[in-house]
Amino acid sequence: MSTKLPAINAKSIIKVLEKKGFVLVRQSGSHAIFRHANGKRTTVPIHSSKDLGKGLIAQIMKDAGISGEELRKYI
Q: pTM for the whole thing?
């Protein structure tokens, strides 16, 4: 399988985070902060339907402990 990250928007990554057990704890402007019961935390910028940058997607995945394979499975 390819190691290239898919282009996705904030709404899609939020759905993946929620399926993995993350919950929205607060929102500051256009940034939503999600937290998991195990203590992991990540921030997702919400800017309409624009796709998130590859580096930002990679950082959210790293913060959340989500692999590329899991991301593809949920979207």
A: 0.89
Angstrom distances, CA of residue 29 to CA of 1, 26, 65: 37, 10, 25
Pairwise CA distance, residues 63 & 8, whole Å: 17
Q: Which residue has the higher pLDDT, 1 or 47?
A: 47
Contact yes or no for 32/43 (Cβ under 8 A): yes
Whether 1 is in a domain gets the answer no
Question: Residue 62 is encoded by which pair of tokens?
Answer: 């790293």
Asked if residue 61 is part of any domain, the answer here is yes
How many folded domains does the chain comprise?
1
Please name the amino acid found at residue 66: I
Cβ–Cβ under 8 Å, residues 10 and 45: yes
Determine the Cα–Cα distance for residues 30 and 55; give it in Å rounded to an integer.
18
The one-letter code for the residue type at 19 is K
CATH for 51? 3.30.920.30
